[in-house]
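Sequence, structure tokens quoted for completeness.
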Amino acid sequence: MLLETEGLTKRFGGITAVDGVDFALETGELCSIIGPNGAGKTTFFNLLTGVLEPSDGRIRFDPESGGDAGGASAGADGTGSAIDITAASPDETALAGIHRSYQITNLFPTLSVLENVRVAAQASRGSDSWKLWRNVADFEDHYAEATRILERIGLAGEAETVTQNLSHGEKRSLEIGVALAGNPDLLLLDEPTAGVSSEGVDDVVALIEDVAEDHSVMLIEHNMEVVMDISDRIAVLHRGELIADGPPEDVRGDEAVQEAYLGGYGREGSEAAGDGSDDEATDGDVADGDAAADGGRRVRAGGEPR
């Protein structure tokens, strides 16, 4: 098992944003997290990546689990080679192998496209990568990795373009490229198609499918056509609780999911719910915006940076 949560809970004063979630992700899966606004989706991502500290519960991550359906061999405590990342900071979770993109664009707008990825590649090597006295070949390695990533995400031709001059869809693809730096074991994508034109959505979806060929992926997404088309599995949050988890067809036909969120998606004569935007304002996910603004510093309940 690559990732596992047990009783994961986050409270903001009297509001429980994530409520006792037991969740497990196998290596190689592409799992979509869906639910109505305020369901706790981005808060869940923030807990997994160390931006928020859980009120209760545990998070375990096992990058050595490989591709076996059963994960690594269990140890005496039943956790195998998994490490406990419940109290890990954002930089610690990133170094462990969990990278993410944010709901709010989190790029350096005045740097070139290549430099954005190069900086991410350098950061993925840990604090030693920023030492003054180091082999210049290391920088060449970072640029080589960044160039490979740009080729993969279709932005090699824009390498020297100032990032703020990209289209919104191109910025979304670049965010995925930045998250790929360092070759993470797990990639978390927070609304990767939000605000992207209908023409650009196909490009972003194709990129996600390509990335999922050799990475485990979790994404928050409101475009139900995208979710149903690309997901191996769908997990549904409602009022902080996990109310459904399974293959797309099973989740689409689940009555509780229909009532809570889908609003008849997939039924004859009905339209998909969701408009491609999710402010998550009611469940404390304002911390996501704070994380983007302050460089991903851990945030305590109430929004105070740690």
Q: What stands out?
A: Residues 58 and 190 are 22 Å apart (CA to CA). Residues 3-293 form a domain with the Rossmann fold fold (CATH 3.40.50.300).
